[in-house]
Amino acid sequence: MPQLNPDPWFFTLMASWTVFLTIVSTKVLTYVKPNEPAPTSTQDYKFGSWNWPW
Hints:
single chain; mainly alpha; transmembrane helix; transport; transmembrane; hydrogen ion transport
């Protein structure tokens, strides 16, 4: 069963994950958002109780 032989694809898999974890992740983690999210309102809302018909 040739599909169970890890020699042809294992090195490619490990090399691609190494590149992803070292280069791509550092570039993604250094990304800075242009605008930090801020709350639009600091007002507390008071909701009434529900009036259930039963």
